[in-house]
Specification:
The protein is mainly alpha-helical. The chain is built from 4 helices and no strands. The longest helix has 23 residues. It starts with a helix and ends with a helix.
């Protein structure tokens, strides 16, 4: 998130790329999709889109954390 705020596009792009490789095997297809979007928007240096995707990622992770606490 801080890298998006600082407009460190290569850091954002590389981080999103790494996520893609680990999301699907663990059943996080939605996170994989969001990481792909983030990687593409970071490559385009689209600050507004990256902020929106980061918000979606935070919401997704918050929801998953809540679900895990209920188990």
């Amino acid at each position: 998130k801080q890298s998006v705020v600082n407009k460190e596009w290569e850091v954002v792009r590389k981080s999103a790329h790494k996520w893609k490789g680990i999301c699907v095997p663990y059943g996080f297809g939605t996170l994989d999709f969001l990481a792909r979007e983030l990687e593409a928007k970071a490559a385009d240096r689209n600050h507004q889109a990256c902020n929106g995707i980061i918000k979606k990622i935070e919401e997704y992770l918050s929801t998953k954390a809540s679900e895990m606490r209920q188990v």
